[in-house]
Amino acid sequence: MTKEIRLMKGNEAMAEAAILAGVDAYFGYPITPQSEIIEYLMSANTAERTGMQVLQAESEIASINMVYGAAGCGKRALTSSSSPGISLKMEGISYLAGAELPCVIVNVVRAGPGLATIQPSQSDYFQAVKGGGHGDYKLIVLAPSTVQESVDFMRLAFDLAFRYRNPVMILTDGIIGQMMEKVELFEQQPRLSEAPEWATRGKKPGEKSTVVTSLHLESEDMEQVNLRLQAKYREVEKNEVRFESYRCEDAEVLFVAFGSSARIARKAMDLARMKGIRAGLLRPITLYPFPVDEVRRLAGQVSGMLTVEMNAGQMVEDVRLAVNGRTPVEHFGRFGGMIPGPDETLKALESRLEEWHKKQPAQAE
Amino acid sequence: MAEQSIISPENLVYKKTEVMTDRELHYCPGCGHGTAHRMLAEAIDELGIQSETIGVAPVGCSVLAYYYLNVDMQEAAHGRAPAVATGIKRVLPEKYVFTYQGDGDLAAIGTSETIHACNRGENILIVFINNGIYGMTGGQMAPTTLPGMKSSTCPMGRDVKTMGNPLKITELVAQLPGTYYVTRQSVHTPGNARKARRAMKKALEYQKENKGTCLVEVVSNCPSGWKMNPVDSNKWMEENMFPFYPLGDIKVPGKGLVNGGKDGR
Amino acid sequence: MAAKGDIIIDIERCKGCQVCLDACPKDVLEMSKKVNAKGYQYTVKVNSDCTGCANCAIVCPDAVIKVYRVK
Questions:
Q1: Which partners does chain C have (≥3 C-beta pairs < 8 Å)?
Q2: pLDDT at A332 over 70
Q3: Across residues A94-116, what is the average pLDDT?
Q4: Do chains A and C touch (3 or more CB pairs under 8 A)?
Q5: What's the rounded Cα separation, in Å, for the pair B102 and B118?
Q6: Cβ contact B145:B102 at 8 Å
Q7: What is the pLDDT of residue A364?
Q8: Given CB atoms, is B26 within the 8 Å cutoff of chain C?
Q9: N or C: which terminal CB in chain B sees fewer CB atoms within 10 Å?
Q10: What confidence tens digit (pLDDT) does each residue in B101-111 have?
Q11: Domain presence at residue B1
Q12: ipTM above 0.85, yes or no
């Protein structure tokens, strides 16, 4: 059987992937640069194709709470938004994490803070990987760097969400959301037919009622809930780290970049190689769990690391934590919707090489 | 001649419904929440839909409603119950879905979710407990606090010039085409409680027919927040709350707004 | 002659709110002199005029009253 290859915009590809992944319900609210997701779903005749429910809510707050309601029934529920809208969803996301409900949230990031601009950015990294809402919780965060990954991660995100009963965020940006690339779609997955035992589906006679809640008034109970969540996050950290390495084997300097800036960093890496600089690129795919071990391992090999981010320096903090002082870690970024070019990225690397070599001369071959 | 006891199973005519759990209610003495819970539970019981019902609890005094209502339930964030109920109903349209919300939850922080769920005509029942005060946080002013009524955040009485007017959200949602049956009840007397139960039962029956949103307001008391004993609080409610929030149907099937929707009489 | 109605009050769950007193058409109920384990005075039946109308049980916020009636 020949696989179907289509040319699709990132946002539309994610929407199609949601239908194919057997998602039960999408609740959203328009915001640039991701409105194509709900527009696509609204015109895709999902009710007939799979029975998927699609609803435009009155706000981001309402839509994430609709996700809560549907997820609490054991259904695959999806929402999407962009940065200011994700801020509004944070209350609901904290409740979803607290009630241990699976769901997927797409954030097609635009620049901030505030209303800022609709241009692409990666400035929601902290919000995504550190929690964002109140309380000790984590989201599993997947960062696609291609339209193909945007498609593949939709299915992966729901698998992870249900495996760990935890919200999963697909953290992408206006570049990947808006650009068109070739994609290979996966086959239609069935919608869930069985309800998990934790889901509210109507109390069975003779059985105890099921309650979905994040409320535990006794501190002793709440501590136990927190301990259970932390144990789950340790499992996630053990099992779900994903990253991609480009020419790291012989690298003496390393770019670390995710999502669309990883594409730019990769080009800069190629340019560096042409100039005889042995550069490599580590691309974290899961931003939480962060590839701590791989960064730590590479810290023993390279003379310096440069994160390339479309923000003022966010992931660089996690890289520094992993490196723990063993090698210099610096940040290069453009923000406010500006996109760094490969040339300026290479320059940013070159400007640091002398100092890095002084500190820790790279081993001669 | 000694009296013969009539206490035997065949003579039992009233006991707590199985749709209530055996847990002791945490509510203050005389609080209407317990009775309102039970009237809803009895309506569910009479329809035989316990296993087909999913409820949504609010934030407020009744945040633990799921301790007492013996049906599957979800706990919503403050004010978001109608959105959570929408999510449930959209993926399980064959189930009966209700929210149980207080005035702060429904008519202040959750106004948007309330109005839009009603405006979409979500096939859910909204049970709205209006006692004109924030009970759980210790008696602060609510959106429904009466003009001149005292609370911890309007200790001199609500001054509508600076604090705004009480919100008659029930009349407001009755105006929306999405609502099908909107009524205002109370549970402080046997007659009123029975009427409230009938209203909730009717609302659930309409839900089966996918008629749109039904809202049953229960004007209730808050002895602790109002700083009165329970009996006095009920009297005060009759004398002060009912003139402002008159009991009765506001929107009824087939007739639409009763008395122009201006009040419930 | 046997009474027409009767009630059983779960006095340990009664919070002494007295809402049932007003609801009773036959003045069957009064408050106890003693208190229960929670420290509340509780409702007690003081005569045999109960008709089993269930009014007291319906308005009891804590559902502490069971009602019996000869049918």
A1: B
A2: yes
A3: 97
A4: no
A5: 16
A6: no
A7: 41
A8: no
A9: N
A10: 999 999 999 99
A11: no
A12: yes
Closest alpha carbon to B251 in B177, B189, B192:
B177
Nearest alpha carbon to residue A73 among A190, A177, A202 = A202
- Distance between CA A149 and CA A171 in Å, rounded? 11
Calculate mean pLDDT across residues A225-238. Answer: 98
Residue B150 predicted with pLDDT over 90: yes
Beta bridge mates, B69? B20
Name the residue facing C59 among B1, B13, B190 (closest C-beta).
B190
Query: Which two tokens mark B163?
Result: 């604090």
**Nearest-CB residue to B234 (from C3, C19, C58):** C19
Which CATH number does the domain housing residue C37 bear? 3.30.70.20
Query: Chain B: nearest CA to A102, how far in angstroms?
Result: 14
Q: From A108, A137, A138, select the one nearest A122 (Cα to Cα).
A: A108
Range of the domain at B137: 19-261
Helices marked H in chain A: 10-20, 35-43, 46-49, 60-72, 83-98, 125-129, 147-164, 174-178, 219-239, 259-274, 292-299, 315-323, 342-359
Report the C-alpha gap between A108 and A173 in whole angstroms.
Answer: 4
Asked if A258 contacts A122 with a C-beta cutoff of 8 angstroms, the reply is yes
- Cβ atoms of residues B105 and B114 within 8 Å: no
The total number of structural domains in chain B stands at: 1
Name the percent of chain B lying above pLDDT 70.
97
Q: Which residues have a Cβ under 8 Å from the Cβ of A321 and sit 6 or more positions away? A: A292
> What ranges in chain B are assigned the alpha helix state H?
32-47, 65-68, 81-91, 103-104, 111-120, 160-163, 169-174, 190-208, 223-226, 230-236, 242-244
Residue B212's contacts (CB-CB under 8 Å, 6 or more residues apart) are B121, B122, B123, B178, B179, B180, B206
Task: Decide: A107 and A297 in contact? Cβ < 8 Å.
Answer: no
Structure tokens at B229: 């004993």
The tokens for A151 are 């498609």
Instruction: Considering only the beta carbons, identify the residue of B13, B20, B27 that sits closest to C54.
Output: B13
Give the bridge partners for A180, in sequence order: A9
The domain that holds B31 is classified in CATH as 3.40.50.970
Q: Residue B8 carries which side chain, given as an amino acid letter? A: S
Residues of C in contact with B198 (CB under 8 A): none
Peptide bond before residue B246 is cis, with ω within 30 degrees of 0? no
Domains of chain A: 5-187+226-239 (3.40.50.970), 243-359 (3.40.50.920)
Please report the DSSP string for C11-50 in residue order: TTT-----HHHHH-TT--EEEEEEE-TTS-EEEEE-SS--
**Which of C19, C65, C67, C70 to mutate to test binding with chain B, by most B CBs within 10 Å of its CB?**
C19
